Every structure is written in structure tokens, then in C-alpha cells.
């Protein structure tokens, strides 16, 4: 059985049986099979198609990009255990016909959510109905992930825990980390994003004139973050730490 698990805030909230459908469309528009109501998701964001017993992920010219295992992709063939990141949601591709990666074994079984209409119906997310369904369904085992955070060296105070699948940095309060300063208007909204996979974190440039830098090097594509890396974007300077210190 080939499944796609939809995860939000480290919980599985939906499951699609991909071997029962040929195409799964994803985006903000209500015509899609998987509708994600989030400003970071484009109206027509991505699609997964079955082709010759393979499943191919294709980005449909989305604004913020589609990430596969932390890397931006336009098109890629999915493998067992792959993690797709779209907006603040993670989609986990599982093929029971092949061995699972060690980090995923035994941790992703899920019961049907209350009122589940089945895999052929459109799902709206981030609504009161789905919040109630999350509560009723209870906690499910989490995909193991290295805890991490970024500590402010300039442009802010304290630290920001990277507990979400996508953390945005930009010039307005719609972003998780807000840039200040005279030249902040040159930054995008968001300007950069830190994405979380099952094991690593990646930073990517999203938009605007001000580009993020890691250890003094301008980020032009997804960059995997390493412990104690220094991230600079405009007036904000952050230090990445892969382990949370209590």
C-alpha cells in the first residue's frame, strides 16, 4: 500500500491512499484534492502523479517553492520515506512495498480521523473543524527530528525554537521572525525560510533584495544548517544550534 501522510505541528492529520488515485493536486484553491489554507501556499502549488508504477512530485510554478527532504525541487520521483514540505505542512511518502528508512519504522500508523470523507474528497486544513478532529484523534507518534533553535546575536533577544516545519523571516509581522531597521523595506515578505525535515534544517532565500547569508556566504539555494552556523539577513543575526540547551 502506498500512502501519503499529511502532518501539521508534528501530528498526522490526514492520510491518502495513493495507489487508489492517479493524481493528487495540492494548493490553496478549493478545487484541489489537498487544500492547504495558508498564505505561504500558492493557489496551484504542486501535484503528485502516478506514472509507470512510480510517483512523481511536480511543483506547478508555486511562489514559495516545494521542498523535498529540505531541497527545492521542480520535479522529482518519490522514494519511500521522502518528506515533502509545502508551507507549514509536511507530506510523508510511504511505500510498503519497499523497506522503510530506519528513522520511520514503527512510528507512522494512524487511524482514520472522525468524519473522514475518504481519499477522493477535498480536504480543507487550518479550520475549526480540523482543529476539533486533531483533538479527538489524540496524539500520534512523531517522526524523529533533531531539536534545534536559533539564538539572536543582533536584531532581537533570546532564541526562537525551530519546532515548526517552516519558519519564515521577513519584514512584516506575518513572518515568524520579523526584521527591523531602516533598510528592512528591501526585504521580502518572507525574505528567507528555514525548513525542517526528519533529520536536518535548511535555509533558503525566498524574495526581496536582501538575501540571507550563512557564515558570510550568500544563500542562493537551500543550505543545510550545521551546529553554530551564523545566519545574517539585514539587521538580524542568528546563531543556529542543533540541540536545545535547557
What's the quick description here?
By secondary structure, the protein is mostly beta strands. The protein has 1 helix and 23 strands.
Structural summary, described in words:
The structure is a single chain. With 246 residues, this protein is mainly β. It folds into two domains: 2-95, Tumour Suppressor Smad4; 149-241, Tumour Suppressor Smad4 (Sandwich). The chain is 4% helix and 39% strand. It has one helix and 23 strands. It has one helix spanning 128-137, and strands spanning 2-8, 11-17, 23-27, 34-35, 46-51, 54-59, 66-68, 71-73, 75-77, 83-86, 89-95, 123-124, 149-154, 159-161, 166-170, 177-178, 192-196, 201-205, 213-214, 217-218, 223-224, 230-233, 236-241. The longest helix has 10 residues, at 128-137. The protein is elongated and about 50 Å long. 37% of the residues are buried. The model is unreliable at 99-146 (pLDDT under 50). Residues 24-73 form the FHA domain. Pfam families: FHA. This is FHA domain-containing protein. It comes from Desulfosarcina ovata subsp. sediminis. InterPro entries: Cell_Proc_Reg/RNA_Proc (IPR050923), FHA_dom (IPR000253), SMAD_FHA_dom_sf (IPR008984).
